[in-house]
Design a protein that fits this description.
Blueprint: H1 6-17, H2 32-41, H3 56-64, H4 79-89, H5 95-100, H6 107-116, H7 131-138, H8 145-154, H9 156-173
Helix pairs in contact: 1-2, 2-3, 3-4, 6-7, 7-8, 8-9
């Protein structure tokens, strides 16, 4: 571990006294040690950590901060740590809200999102939007006519398959 400079010690002491101190620091004083202390004092300080300083450790410490909520997720550039955040906040925040704060960049996260809430389809980038993913969304508990319409417009072949399945289900009920 690096030895802290007197300036870093000063800044960390000020951060401990006022969690609003960090955002006002000039960028050259936002060192790794000062930034880690800042997100430890207040998870929302993650927003002000310079890109060149942000690390997995800094993001994890921010997620563990007692005052943080899902609005910190867009400031975490690591998808696996974002997923950890989703897990942490899932008990108190609806899936649609959680995933709205994320940049969904991989198929695994996309599938988790639409499985949790069909309306998360709107957060999925076109390059990840597949017929299979839409099928998962249609099986989501809150899938409805709006989701079916969206899927039908993007993947017309699925509309026929879904109507056939819907008709078969209706016949079974009779």
């Amino acid at each position: 571990m690096n030895v802290l400079t007197d300036r870093e010690k000063w800044d960390i002491q000020k951060i401990e006294g006022s969690r609003d101190y960090y955002p006002s620091l000039p960028e050259h004083r936002k060192t790794a040690a000062v930034s880690l202390a800042a997100v430890s004092a207040c998870g929302y300080n993650l927003e002000y950590v310079p890109e060149s300083i942000i690390s997995r450790e800094t993001c994890r410490v921010a997620l563990q901060s007692k005052d943080v909520d899902c609005t910190v997720l867009p400031h975490i550039p690591f998808s696996d740590i974002q997923r950890d955040g989703i897990q942490r906040f899932s008990g108190s925040t609806p899936a649609f809200v959680l995933y709205s704060f994320m940049d969904i960049t991989d198929a695994k996260t996309a599938k988790e999102a639409v499985k949790a809430d069909a309306y998360c389809l709107q957060f999925i980038p076109d390059k990840l939007l597949t017929a299979d993913l839409c099928k998962t969304a249609l099986q989501s508990p809150n899938a409805d006519k709006k989701i079916l319409k969206f899927v039908s417009e993007r993947f017309p072949a699925m509309q026929t398959a879904e109507r056939t399945q819907h008709n078969a289900n209706n016949k079974l009920k009779m």
